[in-house]
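User: What would this chain look like folded?
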Amino acid sequence: MTITGLDHFNIRAKELDAMRDFFVEVIGLTEGDRPSFQFPGYWLYAGDAGAVIHLVGSDRERGYVSGHGGDDRDGTGVVDHLAFKGTDAAALIERLKTHGIEHQVRELPNGAARQIFCAGPEGVTIEVVFPTD
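Assistant: Here's the prediction, encoded as structure tokens.
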């Protein structure tokens, strides 16, 4: 067996629509087809890469938890951040400002890329990497 790339991240969200809106309106993913699971969620797509984010509802008060069970931990658990490749850093910075989202811009020491970090809903940290070459 060989690992050939990333398939998707699965994120449990208490505020499912807010999480979807963040990834669509701010990060620039698109909502797409999702199998009709017995629990609420969204699949979010990144161009030709497919459904890179699977959002799953996690709210015991509303009577549902993620499809895989488990506990409802706060924050991102052992996941430190999600990183995407991107184009047009200025456009992302403008969207972050429009939505009132604080962000940090960093340059890699070798100058090969610019990184933009921001906090998404429910404590998930997002990085978008923009090659500078």
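Residues 66-70 have pLDDT under 50 and may be disordered. If you want, I can go into more detail on any region.
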